[in-house]
Structure formats: structure tokens, C-alpha cells
Amino acid sequence: QQQQQQQQQQPLNAMTTGGAPVHLSVPTTSHPASVGGVSGSAGAGAPIVVAAAAADAPIRPSSSAHDDKSRSPHGAAQAATAAAAAAAAAPQHGPSGATALPPPPPSEAPPAKPPQACSEQVVVGLATALEHMAALATKPEAMTCFHCVRPPAVSVRDYLGRIRKFFGCTLECYVLGLVYIDRLIKLRPNVVVSTLSCHRLLLCSMVLAAKFHDDCFYSNSFYAKVGGLKIEELNGLERKMLQLLDYKLLVQPEEFELYREILCKAAAGNK
Predict the structure, then answer these.
(1) What is the pTM of this model?
(2) Inter-CA distances, 53 with 21, 22, 47, 79, 102, Å
(3) How far is 260 from 179, CA to CA, in rounded Å?
(4) How far, in Å, are 48, 113, 172, 174, 249 from residue 118 at the CA level?
(5) DSSP 123-159
(6) I need a labelling partner for 216 at 20 to 30 A (CA). Which of 47, 79, 223, 233 fits?
């Protein structure tokens, strides 16, 4: 009896030094037991063995191999060596080894010269140019809606002087008039500038130039009276010229300056 009492007084949990296993006597039960995160179904009187950690075992946090390598002095040295090798492999320009600056952007082209102001020379030059073109016309020529049955009694120079007096358009319109006539004979070779066609071609081209370029212009009924035509005839000629030009009346500054110089040279040669 005394021995039994001494055994009951002894502690139930006894741990030996050096990480020895601990034996816990548990009563018979059918419920699952879980100790230290390990669960299982205990049998009748079966002991649960839990391995106790050694007192002197070091504690090390879990980390990836990459973190350990980068944190270690040896890993930092390897990273610095790789960075130095990448910098050495980069292209170097110049004697000092520094990277050269990018080349400057190409200089922009100088702006085009603004067109010079027109003078009365363009009117004289247009009359001279039309007279020269009519003299070069070959006969016979194909008759178009711009041809007259017989040559008008008024010369093309006097006819242009009448237009200059009554149209009241800007001098730039006379340059545009020559541009439109030249475009027409290039696009439609059957249209020839001659003594039979130069008057109507001039009148129609000046009407288009005044309407396209100037802010203020007259009606076709007024232009028809100045040109000596019926308004229905002028309307038909204007519509026909627009169709033959493909409705392209815009003149670029470079082209305008070219024809202005042609008219000025023609006026200077007429003196």
C-alpha cells in the first residue's frame, strides 16, 4: 500500500534531460487526440509519444535560398560583381569613357519666302502672254464652247483693260487667271488658246479667280455685261471650265510665285 501511495504522489509528467521522449498515460477514449498539431485516434491505453525539443537546439526562421544568399556577405559580393560586369558591358562613347549625348535633331528647313505683292505689271504681262499664245496656235483647231465664230473686233489687250476697269478684283486674280488657263490646256489638249478662244477663256478664268480669291465680287449678270455675253452663256462657260479643271482652283504659294514671275518677265519684255 505504501508503495502504491508513493507512486501516486510522483508527478505524472516526467521530462528527462537531453530531449528524451515524454510518456503520457491517458485513459481509454474513443475521441481523437491532438498533441503538438498531430491528430490521431488513440487506442485503448495507447501512449502518445511527443518528442520534446532539445534545450540547446538553435531556432532558425524559414526563408528562401535566394533571401539567404542575398543577405549573406558572400551573396552581396556576387551581386556587386554582376552589376559591375553589366556596367562594363554597356557601350561607351568618347575618350573619357562616358556615354555620349544623343545627336541633336536635324535643323528645320527655312520657311518659304512669302509671295511678293503684285503690281500692275501682272495685268500687262497677262495680255502679252495671251497674245503670244494665240499667235502660236495652229490651224485648223477643234471648235469648243470657248470659241467664237469669228475673231472679235476688240483685241485681247483692250479686252483685258476693260476687265481691269470694271471687275474691281485684286491683282492676284490676274495671276490665278493665267494659272487656270494653263491648267486647262494641259489637262485638255483639245482646248487651244487662239484668236477665237482667248477672249472667252480670259473672261471665264477671271470670273473664277475673283469668286475664289476675293471676299467681295459681283454677280454673273454684271460680269456678262462687262464681257459682252448673255448671262446664260457665261453660266454655261463657267460650269464647263470648272468641270474641265476637275474643280481644282487652289494654287499653292510656290506655284503662284512662279506664274507671277512669268507675268512680270513678260511685261518687262513687252517694253
Answers:
(1) 0.59
(2) 9, 11, 19, 38, 66
(3) 10
(4) 115, 15, 6, 9, 19
(5) HHHHHHHHHHHHHT--SS----TT--SS--SS-HHHH
(6) 233
